[in-house]
Amino acid sequence: MADNNRHRDLALAPTWATRAGFGFLTVNSALAIYKARGDAVSIVFVSGSYLALLLLFRCLRDFEQAAPGSPARERARRAVWPLTTLLTVAFAWKVAAAMPSAVAAAVVWALAVATTAGGFFVLFVPG
């Protein structure tokens, strides 16, 4: 039993690729904030996206580590959808603002709504 738990802990330990990915995300976010100095909206966007991603990855890790059917697994599952929705809306807002036409912006928002609705159904609708 103890050997099985040790194997599970090792399997969920951060790998060099995970650490490199988080390092890249951190450096990239810091550079974006530095580049956006003076633009409060961009700084809030980058900071908020960075924090939401960190929370999302934490919730996904908690979900993977929790036993099936446990309250901890349920809490993690319920936290994933709001975080992904926040990120989807934030990125849709930025991308839609950069679209050359209102039709293209509407398509971006329609895709964001479809993604958010799809995530809700996958996470919360039994079946």
Describe the overall structure.
- There is one protein chain.
- By secondary structure, the chain is an all-alpha fold.
- The protein has one domain.
- It is 84% helix and 0% strand.
- The protein is built from five helices and no strands.
- The chain has helices at 2-11, 16-35, 40-65, 71-98, 102-124.
- The chain is flat.
- Pfam families: DUF6490.
- The chain crosses the membrane at residues 12-34, 40-58, 79-96, 102-125.
- Keywords: Membrane, Transmembrane, Transmembrane helix.
Mean pLDDT: 89
Order of helices and strands: HHHHH
Strand content: under 5%
Counting structural domains, the number is 1
Number of helices: 5
Poorly predicted parts: none
Number of strands: 0
| Structural class estimated from helices and strands | mainly alpha
Broad shape? flat
Give the fraction of residues assigned to helices: over 70%
- N- to C-terminal separation? 33 Å
Question: How can the largest sheet be summarized?
Answer: none
- Rg, Cα atoms, Å: 18 Å
Layout: helices, strands, pairs:
Layout: H1 2-11, H2 16-35, H3 40-65, H4 71-98, H5 102-124
Helix pairs in contact: 2-3, 3-4, 4-5
Summarize the structure.
By secondary structure, the protein is an all-alpha fold. It has helices spanning 2-11, 16-35, 40-65, 71-98, 102-124.
Keywords:
transmembrane; mainly alpha; 127 residues
